[in-house]
Amino acid sequence: MKSLIAALAIVSTSAFAGNVVGHIHFQSESTWVNALYSKSLCLDGDTYKATVTKCMEYGSGDERRCLQYGKIAATQPVESTRQRCASFGGGDDNQCTKWITVSYVQSPNITVKFYNDDNELVKTKKITVPSCN
Which DSSP string corresponds to 63-99? Predict the structure, then answer.
């Protein structure tokens, strides 16, 4: 019976896997962790922790081709800051001409949104990032 329930859960979740929104952004590692599917994401006081897979070595002259991956421990404060473009310019208005620092708060209470391939909202699920105990 447990395997049947698990199989149904996988099928019902994968049916909405066109796009899933609901993650924690780890700025220093330039990555994010999906709050619903991650097995390592947790909250330790006011800091998120997770184990993430990162590229450890890139090909010479091509920073898009990873030669070796590895797992690292990533941390991200619940409250931090980040840079945001305040003014665009340039010939086609796509170059930032002024950057500002803004507050960046990521709540442990997350609403995960599931979209289908046509980018239509199919369902939502509210979750809380677990404690690291």
Answer: EEEEEEEEEEEEEEESEEEEEEEEEEESTTS-EEEEE
Contact between 22 and 110 (Cβ < 8 Å): yes
CA-CA distance, 108 to 101, in Å (whole number)? 22
C-alpha 38/C-alpha 115 separation (Å) is: 19
C-alpha 10/C-alpha 14 separation (Å) is 6
Q: Is residue 1 a part of any domain in this protein?
A: no
> What length does the chain have?
133
Residues of 71-94 as b/e, b for ≥16 C-beta within 10 angstroms?
eeebebebeeeeeeeeeeeeeeee
Q: Give the integer Cα–Cα distance in Å for 132 and 51.
A: 12
Positive or negative, the CA dihedral 85, 50, 37, 58 is positive
Q: Would residue 67 count as lying in a domain? A: yes
**Could you tell me the mean pLDDT of each successive run of 10 residues in the chain, 133 residues long?**
37 44 77 85 94 88 83 92 88 82 92 89 92 90
Range of the domain at 64: 12-128
